[in-house]
Amino acid sequence: MLLRTQTAAGYRAGEWQQVDCAFARPWVCDWPTVSTGSCTTAELGGVTRALCTEALDRPAAAAACATIGGTLARIDDRATNDAVQSAAAALSATGWWLGGGPDVVDDWRWPGGALIPEPSYSNWGPVQPDNTAGGQDCLRLVVTDSGGSFAGQWDDVPCDSAHPHAFICDVPAGTGDQPDCVAQDIAGARRLVCAVKVGIADAALTCAAAGGALARIDDEVENAALLAASQSLIVGVDDSAFIDGSDEGAEDLWVRGDGVVIDDRR
User: Fold this and answer.
1) In whole angstroms, how far apart are CA 211 and each of 33, 65, 124, 207?
2) Do residues 6 and 35 make contact, with C-beta atoms less than 8 angstroms apart?
3) In this predicted structure, what is the pLDDT of residue 178?
4) Residue 139's domain spans which residues?
5) Same domain, yes or no, for 133 and 160?
6) Are residues 165 and 43 in the same domain?
């Protein structure tokens, strides 16, 4: 399914158009931010990282990272730790979840299983990890500390909702920054508007690789907002863009990728 971004070929701007799925067109993704308006992406230590200021418990933070194909952050050297601390300090939160945790024999490991330190770096604060009172099974980077002794160092803390923190995700290079794409907040959702022309299957795969899906439009207000945002970006490249919707399963039964029926014209 296409959203017309300009009036042409008998369609008015903003209308939807049926097209052969093999045709190459621009496309729009719904790109789920891990927390609306709370994350800033930066290249730190050679890795794309999302620094998210909303305070969550550790399981919720890990799940949020997973929505963009990432994991809670891993830090392997002092230069990276310093860069992450500096970027996080500029965003005001004092404590940030990293990805480490103890295994069954209390060896601390990064996501994926690498031991901490691996290969030779850790940055625990004084007498940490200490598992005070038990149950301190999650790793926090302390960005600022009123006493000064912990700033930039790591601490083991409880993982539960009584101890929420901001969090840092390591995300795939290119997440939210696909070639020829612009990320925008449109009608309350984070979307990637991509001017490069590909077939709908490749567009859907690229959206999925960025943690999203082809854009879903639920009402006229959302359609108008997406049209306005797309018009300045999609010009002279067929004046239309793939959005979510197909009748491949049954002719004239238009269905979104999540199975919701858009229109039944049978």
Assistant:
1) 9, 10, 32, 7
2) no
3) 47
4) 39-170
5) yes
6) yes
3-state secondary structure of 224: helix
28's CB contacts (< 8 A; 6+ apart) are: 3, 191, 192, 193, 194, 214, 215, 226, 230, 241, 242, 243
Per-residue model confidence (pLDDT) at position 154: 94
Which residues have a Cβ under 8 Å from the Cβ of 92 and sit 6 or more positions away? 53
Q: Which residues contact 64 (CB under 8 A, 6 or more apart)?
A: 34, 35, 52, 56, 167, 169
Cα–Cα distance for residue pair 122/128, rounded to 1 Å:
11
Among 122, 141, 170, identify where a domain stops.
170
In a shared domain, residues 44 and 139: yes
Same domain, 78 and 124: yes
Q: Report in angstroms the alpha-carbon separations of 57 from 3, 134, 218.
A: 39, 17, 31
Residue 98 burial by Cβ neighbours in a 10 Å radius (0-12, 13-18, 19+): buried
- Confidence band for 39, pLDDT divided at 50, 70 and 90: confident
Whole-number Å distance between alpha carbons of 133 and 125: 17
CA distance 1 to 51: 35
Q: Please list the helix, strand and coil fractions of the chain in percent, rounded to the nearest 5, in that order.
A: 15, 30, 50
Q: What is the pLDDT of residue 29?
A: 84
Kindly give, in sequence order, each residue whose CB lies less than 8 Å from that of residue 223, ignoring residues fewer than 6 positions away. 3, 14, 217
Residues 97 and 184 in one domain: no
The answer to whether 85 and 77 are in contact (CB under 8 A) is no
